[in-house]
Amino acid sequence: MSLIFFPPPIQQINSEIIHRAGVDLYVLRLDLMHPWVNGNKWFKLKYNLLEAKEKNFTTLLTFGGAYSNHIYATAAAGNLFGFRTIGIIRGEERLPLNPTLSFAVQQGMQLVYMNREMYRQRNTPVIEEYLQQRFGEVFIIPEGGSNLNGVRGCMEIIYDAVYAFDHICVACGTATTLTGIALSLHQGQRAIAFPVLKNGSFLAQEIESLLTNYLASDLPTLSNSPASWELVCDYHFGGYAKVNDELLLFSQQFREEHGIPLDYVYTAKMFYGVMDLLKQGFFSKGDSLLLVHTGGLQGNVGMEEKLQRFSKI
Fold first, then answer.
1. Could you tell me if 231 and 172 are in contact, meaning their C-beta atoms sit under 8 angstroms apart?
2. pLDDT higher than 70, residue 38
3. Which of 61, 183, 214, 257 has the smallest CB count inside 10 Å?
């Protein structure tokens, strides 16, 4: 597989809803950067991989659920860049492996299952010491790539397009991507995050903590003052990885109309939220919006399989 990463195109979207709202709407297609290591996953991994290489680590260890985009991307990136990879998977082993974990194994990742109680303590010194004792000298990347290296990478997402838009919209899981984007924008611009978790307002504290810790670090920054940011918490559709017929229908129609596939866990919820806010007059006429497509399309296969099973019950 080629190591080439393609510059993500920016695609304009036109519809009657957008026209009536009087805004310009564009999509940053991070999903097209690479077949396997794409979306915000690449940006969150980039500087973790560089640090691991600089410190002469040969093995990466990270965490995720059974359908994790981060597990998928880390396995592929490890294989592409010459690292051994270990994935600590939340919960018990289920056979046959789902498409996400099958792919990870094909990329050479060793899967290790951890019970949920122990998994909740994954970021504590006790668990980190246990993992180092069990696996030796490994470079540990947090779940979702949510650390300062991840923030640093996400500062590069908007890049050349940074001056062109009033609002940058992104789905939000760990808040790492939103934090990096907020640090890369200019005053007068606004980053808007759509949490995919129920009661996602708690992420405001996570964002403030990440911002404070990053600005206090020695890592490079584009600004000592992050741009304005906001959480819109009304479009989680019941919680993480929860979907309903309305969201599925929206995703299908959006793809048919605009040729852009959306993943159900993250981008579909954000796109739905933006379109709904446009109907409500949330944005001002003349505003320009950039919606960040954060990839994750691999997860749709597993999600569709789960939905088919439930529909037969």
1. yes
2. yes
3. 257
